Amino acid sequence: VFIAQSRASGSHRDLEDEELTRIFVMIPKTYTEEDLREKFKMYGDIEYCSIIKNKTTGESKGLGYVRYLKPSQAALAIEECDRSFRAILAEPKNKSSESFEHDYYSNNMRQDLRGSTLPFCMQPEFCSFEKIETRIQEPVSKRLSVVSRLPFIQEQLFALFDLVPGLEYCDVQRDPHTNSGYAVIQYSTAASAIYAKYKLNGFEYPPGNRLTVIFLEDGNDSSE
């Protein structure tokens, strides 16, 4: 589909090949470029591999590029590599890499939650929280507090937590002194709140900004 769309657009052949031979993958942060090449060389001739690193610390962001000599080799890699790599065709180089990374993280997070939340909610074990934590030490409630070092955008945060069924409201607040983000989230059931906390506490959104999610007292009996 990507190849057909590109050819139909009438783009120059060299640009077309550039856009169809580079793939973008999610990798363990311990991977080196050699590790990346070793994992993907079975699908074709690799021109280069590169790992995206934090400009300040030099640490891997857990993302990388693999450039093949032929579009067919890149397509084969996307189709046949392990799903954990989340391989997709990379955006053209003229698009901001940070913008592309943000879109990539957001889209994959949405796929993760949609893929796991809905079936999970329909399974009997969700009621006993066996997949989350059987020994919850803190009082639970239907209300959550979300804290971030960056300010929130109301629509984005609502869309993020709305992926867990039962969201009743999302109230974003901002501290004018620190410019940090703070929000109160409430679900219709404690089960949804527990699952949202389990999935999103510590989640980086946007990449590099870790969310802290805790329970807030909602006035109900937490033992229930």
UniProtKB/TrEMBL annotation:
Keywords per UniProt: RNA-binding
Source species, domain of life: Eukaryota
Sequence ranges assigned to domain RRM in this UniProt record: 21-95
Residue ranges of coiled coil: none
Any single Pfam family the record assigns to this protein: RRM_1
InterPro entries, A to Z: Nucleotide-bd_a/b_plait_sf, RBD_domain_sf, RBM45_RRM2, RBM45_RRM3, RRM_dom, SLIRP/GR-RBP-like
SUPFAM superfamilies for this protein: RNA-binding domain, RBD
UniProt-listed Gene3D superfamilies: 3.30.70.330
Signal among keywords: no
GO molecular function, one term: RNA binding
Stored PANTHER family: HETEROGENEOUS NUCLEAR RIBONUCLEOPROTEIN 87F-RELATED
Protein name per UniProt: RBM45 protein
Originating organism: Vireo altiloquus (Black-whiskered vireo)
